[in-house]
Amino acid sequence: MKTWLTSVAYTALVSAILIAQAPAPPPQAPAGPPRGSSGPPEHAKVTPINNLPNPYETVRNWGTLPDGRKWGSVSAIHVDPDGKHIWAGDRCGTNSCAGSTVNPIVKLDPSGKVVQSFGAGQILWPHGMDVDKQGNVWVADARSATAGELKQFPDAKGKGHTVIKFSPQGKVLLTLGTPGEAGDPPAKFTEPNDVLVAPDGSIFVAEAHGAQFLDAAGGPGAIGRISKFAPDGKFIKTFGSYGYGPSQFRGPHSLAMDSKGRLFVADRGNRRIQIFDQEGKHLDTWYQFSRISGLYIDRNDVLYAIDSESDDNYNPGWRKGLRVGSARTGEVWYFVPEHVSKNPSGMGGYGSMGEGVAVDAQGNVYGGEVGPIQGLTKFIPRLKR
């Protein structure tokens, strides 16, 4: 018994010595804010708008794809010039069209039936969309293939970082940017988020998608810019830069134009709308519509701002949802709350809401869903203004 106790004591002593001589573990850095969660100081002064009336009936899973195909992520969505049909860019049943043979661009009639489709093998990651007054469909293909996608699908090479103009039947009429290559205008784009065609045919393109996850300038991807092109695709100018101030952007995610020709930019990473004239002069900044993924302004200057990302880190105090108000005065009238979902969309938090938004001539609102809830949602007005 005495020998056994002595052995135990000896072992304990040796262990204590070894522990004492071992180098101390490095101190653990305190958990900091998530990457990209910084924002302009002006944002903190705005009271969150989460409790306005909701005059819409929500209809999930609107629209049926051909051959029983399931919807993937949809952020690209717009309305046809007839005011009745809806165009959408589906990411081929998942969140990428790499290796897919299906047509990602679809046109749906008022009943939700697909009546036109095209784009197979031509688009990798449809992100933003506009439909001009001639019915041509403009699509921002926001990224090139990842290394993993290229290994599995070599044909994915040479796609992305472009804006493509399609005829209503799907013929490629114009390509802006160099397919598959990131860079600077006029020859290249880096992660173009959205495209807008003005009434005079001028083309506006917003970059870059990943900038919202950066908290400082200087590194790769710290890009915030809008480029303007003539109707024939000739480069005119670029304005804006990365940052938090006026005329600076952290992920200009969506574009819209009001009846006065003012350009509205959903500066998502900075949780605001910035308003410009068509030469790039900064006119105003609005924080009251939240952290906006998608933006649409109808012919009556009603503004529809859809928020798919807000949570306590990336937009403290604000809920995901659809906010509807006036592009003339900046007043917010309505709030449609997020869908209940097991997993949240966007950056986290609670529930899900779409990224893209478009509105038909009857005032029906269509949301393009990205995340745990996919496909299209229709919001039918119960009231008429």
The total of beta strands comes to 26
CATH class category name: Mainly Beta
**Over the alpha carbons, how many angstroms does the gyration radius reach?**
24 Å
The CATH superfamily is identified as: TolB, C-terminal domain
CATH topology: Neuraminidase
Low-pLDDT stretches are 1-26
Q: How many DSSP helices? A: 2
The succession of helices and strands, N to C, reads HEEEEEEEHEEEEEEEEEEEEEEEEEEE
Helix content estimate: under 10%
C-alpha end-to-end distance:
92 Å
Describe what you observe in this structure.
The chain has 385 residues and is mainly beta. It has one domain (46-381): TolB, C-terminal domain (Neuraminidase, 6 Propeller), CATH 2.120.10. Helices cover 7% and strands 34% of the residues. It is built from 2 helices and 26 strands. The chain has helices spanning 2-21, 147-152, and strands at residues 56-60, 74-79, 86-90, 105-108, 114-118, 126-131, 137-141, 162-166, 172-176, 192-197, 203-207, 225-229, 235-239, 241-242, 248-249, 252-257, 263-267, 272-276, 282-286, 294-297, 302-307, 321-326, 332-337, 356-359, 365-369, 375-381. The strands form 7 sheets. A 4-stranded antiparallel sheet has the order 1-26-25-24, with no helix packed on it. It has a 4-stranded antiparallel sheet with strand order 2-3-4-5, with no helix packed on it. Strand 12 (225-229) and strand 13 form a beta hairpin. 45% of the residues are buried. Mean pLDDT is 92; it is low at 1-26.
